[in-house]
Amino acid sequence: MPEGREKPWGTGHALLSTMDTVNEPFLIINADDLYGSESFKLASQMLDSWEQTTEPKCGIIGFRLDQTLSENGTVSRGICETSENETLLKVTETHEIIRKKEQIVAADNQTLPDNAIASMNMWCMTPSLFREFDTAFIQFLTKHLNTPKSEFYIPGVVDKLIKSGKIECAVAQSPAKWFGVTYQEDRDSVVASLKQAVDAGIYPANLHG
Known about the structure:
Helices cover 28% and strands 26% of the residues. By secondary structure, it is of the alpha+beta class.
């Protein structure tokens, strides 16, 4: 680790750390987000459809923007632009998103539709993409090795691969509501939502059982 660097290099680095052990289509997610069972069903269907291929495949499970907000402050989200055949065109990292009365607004008073597709880092991929990420990481390090706070993100690599024509990225929109603790005040609502899901039989009371 370079001098001054205190943490790993970001989500793309996390993905690359698995390249010697993962040899089949896989799902990568944030460890501190709750995506909902419907989202994992969509991801499973996507991965199953790639089981017999060796081609580079990529997909993202997106969420309605209004299902990903916090009541306790602003959030940052990757806003997805999609084609008519439901493939990803680009992801724009958008900051300071919050609901104000009847509208969702972001930095510089940008207005966003409630049904905009937001990326919550729920990516499906095939192992052949590891080579592309490895190449991209080497290029990243040549520029940012001595920049302590630099991050190597999955969406940035996917965006470049789409623009270069190397991949198409399928988009499946989840009907689920995302839950996460962006602010300490979010904890109570997440706990209540989990209890509701357990009471409804969606999750077992003992997840380790």
